[in-house]
Specification:
The protein has 97 residues and is of the alpha+beta class. It has helices spanning 2-19, 84-96; strands at 21-26, 29-34, 37-43, 49-53, 67-72, 75-79.
């Protein structure tokens, strides 16, 4: 019984984090949020490159097909916005401003 409750709690937390991962582009940075956590803040001026990613590496990307990797000094992050084209359009607009 206790094991079932633990498994249920872990499953619910994972679903919560999975469905509540989102990205905010504001002023001078990209903010990656997972549930109520702020996972990463990346200054737009620090973004070196953005490319589509088709690897199966572990990441914040909820999708295996629609993933992008954002490179910045000393690291990178893989995410999967719901609408990649729109996300990239907004990101590019903010970077060029």
């Amino acid at each position: 019984m206790a094991l079932s409750i633990i498994i249920l709690i872990i499953t619910l937390v994972n679903l919560y984090l999975y469905f509540l991962t989102y990205f905010i582009i504001e002023k001078d940075r990209l903010i990656i949020k997972i549930g109520f956590f702020t996972y990463k803040k990346i200054y737009l001026k620090d973004i070196i490159a953005v490319k589509k990613d088709k690897t199966l590496r572990r990441s914040l990307a909820a999708s295996v097909k629609n993933r992008i990797e954002i490179f910045y000094p000393s690291s990178s992050v893989i995410i999967s916005p719901k609408n990649i084209e729109e996300f990239l359009k907004v990101l590019n607009k903010e970077i060029t401003n």
